[in-house]
Amino acid sequence: MNNIIEIKPVKGLVGTISIPGDKSVSHRSVMLAGLSETPVTITNFLHAQDCWSTINCMRALGVLVEQDNSGVLTVQGKGLHNLSEPDNILDAGNSGTTLRLLTGILAAQPFFSVLTGDSSLRRRPMSRVISPLTIMGCKIIGRSQSRYAPVAISPAEKVSGIEYDTPVASAQIKSAIMLASLFANSPSTITEPSISRDHTERMMATFGITVTRSGSSVTVQPAQKLAAPQKLYVPGDISSAAFWLVAASIIPHSQLTLTNVGINPTRTGILDVLVRMGADIAVINEHRSGEEPVADIHVRSSQLKGVEIEPEIIPRLIDEIPILAVAALFAEGKTVVRGAEELRVKESDRLAAITTELSKMGANIQETPDGFSIVGPQRITMASCDSHHDHRMAMAAAIAGAAGNGVKISNAECVSISYPSFFKIIDEISVNPLS
Ligand SMILES: O=C(O)C1=C[C@@H](OP(=O)(O)O)[C@@H](O)[C@H](O)C1
Ligand SMILES: C=C(OP(=O)(O)O)C(=O)O
């Protein structure tokens, strides 16, 4: 399927958007509920393709997952020690989080399993989880000297805790180790170069697991049984909200209210950077939703200015860099991104994809090995772009087109990976599309 979507330039974006559930939290909610013995209802679960990959894998392991008419899930787990051997290969689709976190769970099970994914996921590095899990005693091999999926997992004789310094700040590496550690014979401590998103830590605490943090290290104790909460509530995804935060900032006459946005400090780098760029953003109605902080956000158009985005903040805005590149095109002065080499191993090589696609609109971008620099503001023209089958690229191109002179995006259907209603919402909030 190749859906070509045309986005027209718009005069302004006005309205209120209820931000759909957080993808990271949604994955973790079904995995941990699946390892519990009592039923858990999950409200505001993200019904997008990546999270359904997780549901389908958990179902194949014997977990019962049902949804009601309003999308609320009920998960009846199997407990820590009663998952069943899947009778086929597990398919993580396009989802790195599904594949890497499930590798952590499956590495500690007394049965054989194989995990794979689509052609994009099969190009992404898996040795980063296979290596530490192997040190723990797990038996995992993958394609091409265990660099890539498919990965095949055999029962381990013994799973031991680990003290592990991760070379990259990655919540997927950290979470895979934490999940395997639940089954280990001793605690594990993972130390990151800087703290990646901490949703696993927070949600594990909700399930009665002992997790302690000291600086950039996190220690998780093995568990006998999880004490599941009856209800979980998934906050809105700030990575989805980011597209509207940038769109409303750069499109004149815009005024948006984004409701129910997760503002976990390990995810709010985008807010910090946009505020430094001069964005008109107000965070209101802050409250807690379970272990996660949530708020509403008002955003209005403003003239942004270029900023330096240094390596230290990258883990807190890792998925927002494609849309930040669009913000930089409309900002006055130079924006530089450094230390973002991880973008080369996402759904696409996002640094190359940003440069290629925005250049088609006439943008001038200097790509570097670990980022890019852009001097703005730049006039961009109507162009035919490609998503590279990468949801965040499709949405970033759409906002560039709406703010600029329109865009046609091929392979645009991939927005369903994280934000199925994205194009419908652009239509709903657009004021007087200009033709
Ligand atoms: O743990 C998670 O839910 C995620 C972690 C990040 O990946 P890395 O752990 O590879 O940085 C992020 O890019 C991804 O979208 C979701
Ligand atoms: C990188 C992403 O997700 P994942 O790693 O789970 O595929 C993303 O959503 O931008």
TrEMBL record:
<keyword id="KW-0963">Cytoplasm</keyword>
<keyword id="KW-0028">Amino-acid biosynthesis</keyword>
<feature type="binding site">
    <location>
        <position position="124"/>
    </location>
    <ligand>
        <name>phosphoenolpyruvate</name>
    </ligand>
</feature>
<feature type="binding site">
    <location>
        <position position="172"/>
    </location>
    <ligand>
        <name>3-phosphoshikimate</name>
    </ligand>
</feature>
<dbReference type="InterPro" id="IPR036968">
    <property type="entry name" value="Enolpyruvate_Tfrase_sf"/>
</dbReference>
<comment type="subunit">
    <text>Monomer.</text>
</comment>
<feature type="binding site">
    <location>
        <position position="172"/>
    </location>
    <ligand>
        <name>phosphoenolpyruvate</name>
    </ligand>
</feature>
<feature type="binding site">
    <location>
        <position position="346"/>
    </location>
    <ligand>
        <name>3-phosphoshikimate</name>
    </ligand>
</feature>
<feature type="binding site">
    <location>
        <position position="170"/>
    </location>
    <ligand>
        <name>3-phosphoshikimate</name>
    </ligand>
</feature>
<feature type="binding site">
    <location>
        <position position="96"/>
    </location>
    <ligand>
        <name>phosphoenolpyruvate</name>
    </ligand>
</feature>
<feature type="domain" description="Enolpyruvate transferase">
    <location>
        <begin position="8"/>
        <end position="424"/>
    </location>
</feature>
<comment type="pathway">
    <text>Metabolic intermediate biosynthesis; chorismate biosynthesis; chorismate from D-erythrose 4-phosphate and phosphoenolpyruvate: step 6/7.</text>
</comment>
<dbReference type="Pfam" id="PF00275">
    <property type="entry name" value="EPSP_synthase"/>
</dbReference>
<feature type="binding site">
    <location>
        <position position="350"/>
    </location>
    <ligand>
        <name>phosphoenolpyruvate</name>
    </ligand>
</feature>
<dbReference type="InterPro" id="IPR006264">
    <property type="entry name" value="EPSP_synthase"/>
</dbReference>
<feature type="binding site">
    <location>
        <position position="23"/>
    </location>
    <ligand>
        <name>3-phosphoshikimate</name>
    </ligand>
</feature>
<dbReference type="InterPro" id="IPR013792">
    <property type="entry name" value="RNA3'P_cycl/enolpyr_Trfase_a/b"/>
</dbReference>
<keyword id="KW-0057">Aromatic amino acid biosynthesis</keyword>
<comment type="function">
    <text>Catalyzes the transfer of the enolpyruvyl moiety of phosphoenolpyruvate (PEP) to the 5-hydroxyl of shikimate-3-phosphate (S3P) to produce enolpyruvyl shikimate-3-phosphate and inorganic phosphate.</text>
</comment>
<comment type="similarity">
    <text>Belongs to the EPSP synthase family.</text>
</comment>
<dbReference type="GO" id="GO:0003866">
    <property type="term" value="F:3-phosphoshikimate 1-carboxyvinyltransferase activity"/>
</dbReference>
<feature type="binding site">
    <location>
        <position position="392"/>
    </location>
    <ligand>
        <name>phosphoenolpyruvate</name>
    </ligand>
</feature>
<feature type="binding site">
    <location>
        <position position="23"/>
    </location>
    <ligand>
        <name>phosphoenolpyruvate</name>
    </ligand>
</feature>
<dbReference type="GO" id="GO:0008652">
    <property type="term" value="P:amino acid biosynthetic process"/>
</dbReference>
<dbReference type="InterPro" id="IPR023193">
    <property type="entry name" value="EPSP_synthase_CS"/>
</dbReference>
<feature type="binding site">
    <location>
        <position position="319"/>
    </location>
    <ligand>
        <name>3-phosphoshikimate</name>
    </ligand>
</feature>
<feature type="binding site">
    <location>
        <position position="28"/>
    </location>
    <ligand>
        <name>3-phosphoshikimate</name>
    </ligand>
</feature>
<protein>
    <recommendedName>
        <fullName>3-phosphoshikimate 1-carboxyvinyltransferase</fullName>
        <ecNumber>2.5.1.19</ecNumber>
    </recommendedName>
</protein>
<keyword id="KW-0808">Transferase</keyword>
<dbReference type="GO" id="GO:0009423">
    <property type="term" value="P:chorismate biosynthetic process"/>
</dbReference>
<feature type="active site" description="Proton acceptor">
    <location>
        <position position="319"/>
    </location>
</feature>
<dbReference type="GO" id="GO:0005737">
    <property type="term" value="C:cytoplasm"/>
</dbReference>
<feature type="binding site">
    <location>
        <position position="24"/>
    </location>
    <ligand>
        <name>3-phosphoshikimate</name>
    </ligand>
</feature>
<dbReference type="InterPro" id="IPR001986">
    <property type="entry name" value="Enolpyruvate_Tfrase_dom"/>
</dbReference>
<dbReference type="GO" id="GO:0009073">
    <property type="term" value="P:aromatic amino acid family biosynthetic process"/>
</dbReference>
